[in-house]
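Ticket #4471: structure export looks truncated?
Reporter: QA, pipeline team
Priority: medium

Steps to reproduce: submit the single chain below to the structure queue and open the exported record.
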Amino acid sequence: MNILTKLTLRFSAIVASILTLFSIAIFVFSASFRSGEFYDRLESRAMTTARLLLTVQEVDKALLRIIDQNSIPALPEEQVLIFDKNNELDYSSVESTKKSYPPELLERVRREGKILFKIGDIEQVGLMYRDAEGEFVVMASAYDRFGRRKLKNLRMILLIGWLVGIGITVPAGLVFAKQGLAPLAKMNNQVANINAGNLDRRLDEGNRTDEIARLAMNFNQMLLRLETAFEMQQSFVANASHELRTPLAVMRSQLQVTLSKERTAGEYRATLQSLLDDTDAFARLTTGLLQLAQSNVENQRFRFKPCRVDEALFTAQEELAKLHPNYHFQMDYAALPDDEEALTIPGNEQMLSIAFLNFMDNACKFSPEHTVQISLISSQGRLEIHFSDNGIGIPLDEQEKIYNAFHRAANVQGVAKGHGIGLSLCQKIVHLHGGEIQLKSAPGKGSVFIVRLPLQSPN
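Actual output as written to the record:
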């Protein structure tokens, strides 16, 4: 069953329920009003008859019976019976009546003063009447022909109204459902035309305020993320293919040249050493590519947990010192916060260590003294990690490009080997943690990378 049918049926069911409850309430209140009004009329007839018979001396039983039988407001099948204290019938408005009441019922009337009851369709009232001659029980009964006829007509009107209402509700519900689902149908048609070749298309966001508009906005955001991921994947595959092919080609050419003729042991050793260096560079490139690929999807793979930023720094320092014993690290311990909580953020310590290692590696790699100054500052709900060096610096026109994968500034091409992956990886990891990177650099004056990380989870 589609949504259109479900909405139509549910709308019709709700309206039908409302009409049903409304009709039942009207009928029940009308029936209750009819019954109460009729009992009042019976009580009035009973009291009038009792007063005329027992209080007015000029009216005897025969005259009163004539009055009762010829009264204009006489009720259908009306009977008024008066019983004395011995439960003997003292008066009947119908001359040949054989109607009687059990003594228990008459005693109940004497006890309670007034009772209302019904036998079949005949409604009856029992009253206790007292005067100078003693206590009498007056029983009045009649059939409410006109009231019941009105109820019957009302029931028929309500039933016809209910059927007409349902007949109008079903098509009205169908129109209502179609109008309500029209934006979704339009959105569905737009989504059906989006594929891998046109991820730049966007859905119509309408008024940007209602629920369907917000759904379209969220879907457009998802399309933007998919488009970005798709472009990154294409760029990554193209760049990775190029970067991997280059060292392999270099290694192959060295082997071909070496094998082209007999070499001395020293020449073979030099070739093997060169191949070993190329292999190390190739391994670093492969590791960087894997880390870069991992950072692109890491947001979907791991959950943040509390981690110490200073411990991530120390871990990165130890790993980099093992790879490059000639690197020097100057940590500014004076700026460290006293409170350990100020050093703890929600994140992934391993990924942070990778980012810190790359910042320190770049600082040492392009500095004559191979030295990096590190300071850790906590302020205004976030942590700042400063990586400073006295290296060659970065030209102003290159500073916006250094975070692009495989891009290297022109002034570092002959200074140190690299693949242009490190800073791209650092940016992804920092952004993943809800942070930002600020660069202060000038050619010949060194660089300062400032990493700001929030103390609260970015998720």
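Status: closed, not a bug. The export was complete when the record was re-opened. Leaving a note from the reviewer for reference: The first strand starts at residue 79 and ends at 83.
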